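Make up an example, fold above all:
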Amino acid sequence: MECPIFSKYTCLDVVFNIIGVGTFLFDVGSDLWVATVFYTHGNFVWFGIMVGFMLISSVIVQLFSWFWLQYDRDLKDFDSQTSDGNIVLFGGAKRVNLALFLHVFQLGFFIRHISVIWQGFRVWRQGGSGSEYAVYLTHDLSMLRLIETFCESAPQLTLMMYIMLRTNHARMVQYVSVIASTTSIAWMVVDYHRSLRSFLPDKDKQGWSSSFIYFLWNLFLIGPRVASVALFASVLPWSISAHFPLLWITFALWAWQQRTDFMDSAAGECLYRATIGVIWYFSWFNVTEGNTRDRSIIYHSFMIVDSGILLLTWWCYRDPEVTQSYALILVVSIPLAYAIGLLIKGLYYSCFHPKLWRSEVSEKVLDDVSDGLEPFKAVQADSASFHLSNTRMGKHAANFYTMKTL
């Protein structure tokens, strides 16, 4: 069945991906700069934590990339679709060893960026030929950016804020790191939203206003959460080492209870559920279809209580003299910002949320498609026709755009 799932790959998409690479390189460069400064000034604990965030995040992203590569190699006509210069990324069975080498040395994610840009330029040079395949390539990259953001950028942003609060001053490199992490998170939000929208049949009706409102409510919800965690850590630094694992395990078990089916293997699904636990520590992320409104309410209620406890703990243990100039402002502005974020989120789902379209015909075809999207049509890359169902991002699009989500 033919359905217009894929949008055209435009010059704006090429620009978005180039900016994405630039943001990625800037983020990595600033992280290395900060780590070097910590090391040269003898702050070995902060240096170790910084490098640890980078390594753990990189390993997680490389694992996802490798799992997906293995899944895609089992698809029909995989070798033909990755031949004749169609993509830079690991095409052909003979390049499996090279792919493994690149992922072991933490280069798989970067090569995926280059692959998408290369295919985008080929589409531009050939007047739109292969556009659908270029869009397909961006879907997995968008999800990898999401994972990298919440496994590295969000924790590093928390660390930088903690150091500023703990020492009551900041170096220029720390400001740069905060800006880089914030930029990375904000860009991921917009990029991820744009990627999901490409799965909607009425995607052309959704303008920049939808993405902007989506960006705003995420900013107002994630920012207060990060600030609350950083404030708590600044007065009880070792307690955060118990707080995070406890919530992470709880969230991972909750994801397990929801029976997610994002990956195509048991090991991959375990990795995914563990990663969702990390994401939920900072932000809500819908992972299954159904009546997600109740789950969203439970999550945000828990976040309000937990963040409130963290903020109250900081207020009780803070140094009154050192924090006198900003303590009251933070105590008032952080809960207010979260409340504004919830209001903007409600506005988004009331006025800007794309409704997932279904036809009576598609309902009959969708008996075996749990994500509620029509099966993907065959996409054309140059002269090679192949069938690729990017069900990974398709499922997330269906979950995000379900009409019962809050």
Summary: The chain has 14 helices and two strands. Residues 131-167 form the longest helix (37 residues). Residues 58 and 315 are 35 Å apart (CA to CA).
